Amino acid sequence: MSQVFSEETHRNLLARIPHCTGREVADWLRTVEEGPALCFEERLSWLRHEHNLAYGHAKAIIHEYDLRRAARKLL
Hints:
This is DUF4287 domain-containing protein. Helix content is 76%, strand content 0%. It is mainly alpha-helical. Helix 3 packs across helix 4 (55-74).
């Protein structure tokens, strides 16, 4: 079962991603956009294994990607 993060934890994880990975969040969001079309858990696994990300960072990236994608659909 996947862990649910609070909004504050999500924002804190996003803020730490550049320091921990050496890449900006926008770069990771592009990586997800250009990556394989998978469900949430599969994308999470793909990021973790293909890009050696920690679980929390991978989950924050995928969650942020989904939030931004949903916001674009509303416009």
